[in-house]
């Protein structure tokens, strides 16, 4: 009996020592336990988002590849005569890189614009806001998953186009393919995240896709060089960040671009696009941190 009493007293003493209010081993109330980056949480969010679109990969990866390939077929048949040369290559080879990166950007936007919006509509947004993830980690996980989908779509589209007659996907500057492809995917992932925060129903996100993303993509030099446009329309095209993504990505394959007459102009565009994405990241982070349309 004395031993049992002693054991109970020892357990009580241990509880007192571990009680935060008594200065035990637990962290004080309000003090974060996870310091630095929550790597496990960030990785878990990333894997969750990747698995979400891979469960329906026929719709999210392979269907965009088929749709983009149909664009190539239609435009090469309608406009791509065998003697039609643009930037020193046939029309099919000219238009292929633009279609690849256009598909990457559109699907990056589609992925990130769904994440938070679906949670708000289904009432499961708390599952993303309550875990011990910082706003930067939440944004990073969603954007990284969107970029992953964009890369998968780009590889699928490129694989399909590699077998299309008359198309050459030999890369003159691999660094430009990687840089402009990733920067374009990140830019659209961030814009998709803002749309996901702002939208209250799927119609809102669809409106942004149809009236903003699609026109900016199609009117950015995907199927033509802007030197064929009137001066005023050339100025409008150069104000479109999509133009620099598509032209820079095409430069990586062809070694030629309508951004400027020298490779230096392409390099400056690469730097400018990186700075633009940094600014956009800070803006999206500020919106996400404010809790606008996420917390009530």
From TrEMBL:
Subcellular location(s) per record: Cell inner membrane; Membrane
GO molecular function term, any single one: ABC-type transporter activity
Record flagged with keyword Lipid metabolism: no
An example Gene Ontology CC term for this record: ATP-binding cassette (ABC) transporter complex
Domain of life (superkingdom): Bacteria
PROSITE patterns per record: ABC_TM2
Keyword Transport: yes
One of the Pfam families matching this protein, by short name: ABC2_membrane
Membrane spanning stretches: 61-79, 86-105, 138-164, 176-199, 205-226, 267-288
Alphabetized UniProt keyword annotations: Cell membrane, Membrane, Transmembrane, Transmembrane helix, Transport
Chief location bin: membrane
Record membrane topology: Multi-pass membrane protein
Residue span of region Disordered: 1-27
Entries under InterPro entries matching the protein: ABC-2_transport_permease, ABC2_TM, ABC2_TM_bact-type, ABC_2_transport
Ranges of residues in domain ABC transmembrane type-2: 55-291
Family to which the UniProt record says this protein belongs: Belongs to the ABC-2 integral membrane protein family.
Name by which UniProt lists this protein: Transport permease protein
Organism of this sequence: Tsuneonella suprasediminis
